[in-house]
Model the fold of this input.
Amino acid sequence: MTAQPSEYHRRVAAQKRTSIIEAATKLFLDSGYDGTPLARIAEAAGVSRATLFKQFTTKAALFEAIVTEYWKVDDEEAPLPEPGNLRAGLETIGRRYVDLLTQPGMAALFRIVIAEVPRFPELGETQFKLGKMPYFESVRRYLEAENAAGAARLDDAEMAATQFLGMISNYVFWPRMLLARWEPDDSAITNAVDQAVLTMLTRYGAPGTPGA
Done:
C-alpha cells in the first residue's frame, strides 16, 4: 500500500512547483523558449534536476503548466455570477478579468508566445486552448444563462463575450505589449470596465430587467 504524502510534503511540492514556473517564465522571456534548457530552469528555481523532471518531463509540459497557472480561475472561490442582474454580473466578470490580465507575469507570458510562435506554433495553440478559451467559454456560458433568464437579448453569446472582453483588454492589457510604462490608475481601469458594461447593457440588456 502506497503511503499518501503528508500535508507538509504537499505544501513543499507546491512551493517548488511555483518556483519552477516563476523561474521558467523569466528565463523563457530573457533567453527564449528554445534557448532555455530544463537544467538551467532547475538551477534558477533552486531545485534539483530530478525534482524538476519529476514534475515536468518535457519543456512543453512545463509551458502548459505555466499557461494553466496564469489563466487559472478557482470556480469554488469565484463562481460565475447568478443570472438575473446583467449589470451586476458584467461588473463582477469585468473586475475579475482585470485582475487576471494585470497579475504579475501575464504580460510576460504573452510576450513569450508572441516572440516564439513563428518557430514553435504549438506555444500559441497551448496558450489559446488551455488559457484563453476556457476562460472565454465561462463568460460565454454566463451570457447564455442571462439570455435564458430573460435579462439579456442575445442572438450570439460568443460574439457578445468577444466584444465585452475585448473592450476591457484593449485598454487594460494590450498597450502593455508596446508601452513599457503603461500603468493606468485604478480610477481609469474602473471607468474602462464601467463603460464596457454600459455598452453591453445598451446593446444587449432586456428592457425592464434588473441592471438594464
